[in-house]
Design brief:
The structure is a single chain. With 79 residues, the chain is α+β, with helices and mostly antiparallel strands. Helix content is 35%, strand content 28%. It has three helices and five strands. The chain has helices at residues 12-22, 44-48, 65-76; strands at 2-7, 31-34, 37-40, 56-61, 77-78. It has a five-stranded antiparallel β-sheet. Helix 1 runs antiparallel to helix 3. The protein is globular and about 30 Å long. 18% of the residues are buried.
């Protein structure tokens, strides 16, 4: 089962810090989605291929919900 939310990564620093947090996550099943594009949330090149002017969807397994909620959504999450 997966959970979906939205994040906004407006600067290069935000992307770098986001990836640093994501690298602490044991799961490789966390993805970012923008339109028809889906990229691994740990991929610097993948993230920069997305339109970061708008919030992107983050989809992650329930098992990592606490890590994502506490470290990602509190900082970059949008509603």
């Amino acid at each position: 089962m997966t959970v979906q939310s939205k994040v906004l990564l407006p600067t290069i620093t935000d992307v770098k810090e986001f990836i640093a947090v994501m690298n602490t996550c044991a799961s490789d099943d966390v993805v970012l989605k923008s339109g028809r594009y889906v990229v691994n949330a740990k991929s610097l090149m993948g993230i920069f291929s997305l339109d970061l002017d708008m919030p992107v969807d983050i989809e992650f397994p329930v098992e990592v919900h606490t890590l994502i909620k506490d470290n990602i959504l509190e900082r970059w999450g949008t509603t």
